[in-house]
Structure formats: structure tokens, C-alpha cells
Write a structure and sequence with these properties.
With about 230 residues, the chain is mainly β. It contains three helices and 18 strands.
Length: about 230
């Protein structure tokens, strides 16, 4: 068996799944609405998981994606309310970030990335893309309640803050792109560069406690110690 086609097990009562060693492709909504699914073992040859493949698998708690996986589709784990841990292999190169791949996963605690992955990194619990300079996902159950967006970030994936509640959001980047679809979290205070595009966006939307990020001397000290992409790595 090499292919599991679209909707193959959609809305079924399957509880445990172990894929054969030659399965390479899981189609759109292949296991969506499998509310009793608690465990799935992927084949090492699996390279593509298509859109909504595991949407609303509400009892799935942990997922380990194989190293051979290269493509993760749109909304693959949407509404997996029990999902706590997601582990990403070293060859995942195509993530559809037009919207969060784990939307409404309110119990997501840990995202783990293979240490040899060329551009995906987890920094203080949040998932970043170093190639596209993008913040991809902040887990809703992240233990760190003070989130920092580094200077080198130029965009934020839609819904990356979905269901996230934090104390303080520190934005070092002056421009993180549009925030209208980012599900900006319930946050006590936002600190960002004064008179920056970021500050103007938050001011326009209103309802946020906005504060200046730092003094000029603090920025100077940051530059000395190397507050950069390399340090974050």
C-alpha cells in the first residue's frame, strides 16, 4: 500500500492506526472526524500529508511526524482538541502557513523540531521559520507567558496566536506584516518600537495596552551582545 486516498477513513470509528512501511501519501480528510483515534504510527516513507487529513480527531494527544515527510497541508490537525505534542522531522520543507496547521488545538503544549532541520526552530516554545523569517505557531499551553518576537521576524502566520493567553508580548521587529488574521492573544501588555508600523497597527485595532519597547541604550547594548538571528539559534 502506497496511497491512502481522500476521505478514506473519514468519520469512522478507527482507534489505532499503524501504516504499512511503503505508505507515501495521506490524502485530504483521510482520517478527519475520527473522534476515537488515539494513536497513529506513520511509515518512514511517508512524504505528504494533505489538507485536513486529521481534522477533528479530538482524542489524538501526540503526533510524531517521520523524517521523510516533506509536505504538511492546510489545517491538517485543525480542532484536535486533545493534541498536546507535535514532533516535526528533519526534512519537512513545505508547510502550508496560509492558516495555522493546528487551528483550535487549545491544549497544544510542545512543538519539537528535529535538531538537524535546516530552517525550522523552536525558540522558548514557539515555532519559527528561519528561511522565511516567520513566526509560525505559539502553542496555546506554552509555559512561557512572556513572548518575544525577534528583530529578524518580518511576518506572522495567520492564527499563530490562536487560543494563546500570555502576560506580555515583546515585539522587537518594527514590521511584522498584517496582524488582522493572526488571532492576537489575550495579552496584558504589548511592548513594541515607538512610532513603528507595528505600533500603528495595534493602535488602529485598539483594545491593547501598548508600551514603548526599550530605551536607546538598551538597544545599543543588544547590538553589542549580538541580538540577532545567530544568537537566537
Amino acid at each position: 500500500l502506497k496511497t491512502i486516498k481522500n476521505n478514506a477513513f473519514d468519520d469512522s470509528y478507527v482507534c489505532f492506526v499503524s501504516l504499512g512501511p511503503n505508505v507515501e501519501y495521506i490524502g485530504t480528510s483521510a482520517f478527519s472526524n475520527c473522534v476515537f483515534l488515539v494513536d497513529i504510527n506513520f511509515s518512514e516513507k511517508l512524504s505528504i500529508i494533505d489538507d485536513y487529513a486529521f481534522k477533528e480527531c479530538s482524542n489524538l494527544e501526540s503526533v510524531i511526524l517521520p523524517d521523510n515527510l516533506t509536505q504538511l497541508g492546510y489545517g491538517v490537525f485543525d480542532f484536535c482538541g486533545s493534541l498536546k505534542t507535535l514532533q516535526i522531522g528533519k526534512n519537512l520543507s513545505n508547510i502550508d502557513t496560509s492558516r495555522d496547521f493546528a487551528y483550535a488545538c487549545r491544549n497544544l503544549e510542545n512543538i519539537i523540531v528535529h535538531p538537524e532541520h535546516p530552517f525550522l526552530r523552536v525558540i522558548k516554545g514557539a515555532l519559527y521559520d528561519y528561511k522565511e523569517n516567520t513566526l509560525i505557531r505559539v502553542p496555546p499551553r506554552i509555559q512561557n507567558k512572556n513572548i518575544t518576537i525577534p528583530k529578524w521576524i518580518t511576518s506572522i502566520s495567520p492564527c499563530c496566536f490562536n487560543n494563546v493567553h500570555i502576560d506580555n508580548l515583546f515585539i522587537k521587529s518594527k514590521d511584522i506584516g498584517p496582524i488582522s488574521s493572526c488571532d492576537i492573544p489575550s495579552v496584558n501588555k504589548i511592548f513594541c518600537p515607538p512610532n513603528s508600523p507595528v505600533e500603528k497597527q495595534f493602535t488602529m485595532y485598539g483594545g491593547f495596552n501598548i508600551n514603548p519597547l526599550k530605551s536607546k541604550i538598551d538597544d545599543f547594548l543588544d547590538d553589542i551582545v549580538g541580538d540577532s538571528q545567530n544568537i537566537d539559534k
